[in-house]
Amino acid sequence: MWNRQRSLRGITESSGAAIRGIRVLTGVIAAAVIVAGCSSDGAPPDDLPAALPNNWVTSVAVANDGTVWVGTNDGLGHLSGDTWTNYSSLDGLPNDLVNSVTVVDEAVWTGTNFGAGLLDDGLWDRHGVDEGLPSNWVNDLAIDGDGTVWAGTIFGVSRLNGETWTGLVTDDGLYDGRVTTLTFAPDGTLWIGTNGGLSSVRDGVWHSYSTANGLPNDWINSISIASDGIVWVGTRGGLGRFAGDEWTAITSDDGLPGDWVTAVAADTDGTVWVGSGGVLGQLGGDGWTIYLAGDGLPHQQVTSIAVGGDGSIWVGTRGGLGRLQNQAWTVYAANPEP
Known about the structure:
Methylamine Dehydrogenase, Chain H, disordered N terminus, globular
């Protein structure tokens, strides 16, 4: 584990200094502001305002209006300004364990282990195997340029046509049916991560990639497409970079904080944010900058990353939600148990 007081892989850290292209921020970030209902003596008051539904965050999405939607292990949260509105299975959410959240215009899609849920105009609509999904276990959803919804399940990918779903499986060109994540590139290419490799499809033409093509590992955890079209892929064995012709594998030998990459997000300025090795890593022109839990990151296990339109970085962890803006952290936590 990265530690501000200990040597890193036998290389002693010095605050703010470059170490094999790595900067570990110590004493630079302002103390984090923790937002959750609590009285001055630390005990929960009788009537707390709404807060993050659960500290185990699974997915984060920033809407065009700047509001933030957060999937957790115990419901869906919506942060608008300083106000939380939360949803559970009692409100129509298919399942309280939310795997992913995707926002397009006013519609919010959630992937759960009991189907996909659509929240539109305050009403929930559930989509499952009865509507044509190959499985109720939905790991991720993506929206193409035409507004069509695509769902990644443990038994393949499906596209929503009106009220029914049409499936794409390995026979159609999908590398592996156990889909973990999916996203669209600006050119309309759909990138699909699975437990056994990576696939892309555009205009019916499929391509598949694995370690044989240069991927660092075949188990794909996260995909992000930069504004210049570069594909960044987080795997269980490192970070993959695809510039259109070949893959470059980035591992801990190259400065990556850890080889098990749980989340990756490309910023509009070319910066790449990575959750791995128990830290949040920022890859820029000067190499890696590392953010530690002791400096404001809510928890060492990063689960998801989203970039806001105002440049803020939203980081979901197993210990709360963090927002990094102008080198200052705000941490959003669930209300304490009564």
